[in-house]
């Protein structure tokens, strides 16, 4: 993964968010969510200031960011497609659905397509276990997704050029 340094504007925004959350009990998760909401990801070069403000080690902050699938360390594509890989979705064809999404979108899991149009993310549990397999596109969940339905859903996301 090639990391691109954050802009001064992004780091200033992180500093504002840190200041707003610093004194909140259990601040780390709400702070990380706020940073990601503002920037689309949690930049690696923001980790030291977050750790310092919360009196945590950089390793502790990094560990939380990398543990939870929701947090991104790089900016995502303009559209984000998530395919559930939890047990219920796997049992109902989730893995094949993820492979189908790779073919349709022209990028691999955990990647952003070269044109920046879309990021494909395998995730573990979208909370639709009784209606699996599940896909989420830009924060909008879809249940009981078949390969044909996936093609319909992804038609608006953008095909590779």
UniProtKB/TrEMBL annotation:
Keywords per UniProt: 2Fe-2S, Iron, Iron-sulfur, Metal-binding
SUPFAM superfamilies for this protein: Thioredoxin-like (SSF52833)
Superkingdom of this protein's organism: Bacteria
Cofactor: [2Fe-2S] cluster
Gene3D superfamilies in the record: Glutaredoxin, NADH-quinone oxidoreductase subunit E
InterPro entries found in the cross-reference section: NuoE-like, NuoE_N, Thioredoxin-like_sf
PANTHER family given in the database record: NADH DEHYDROGENASE [UBIQUINONE] FLAVOPROTEIN 2, MITOCHONDRIAL (PTHR10371:SF3), NADH DEHYDROGENASE UBIQUINONE FLAVOPROTEIN 2, MITOCHONDRIAL (PTHR10371)
Protein name: Formate dehydrogenase subunit gamma
Native organism: Ideonella dechloratans
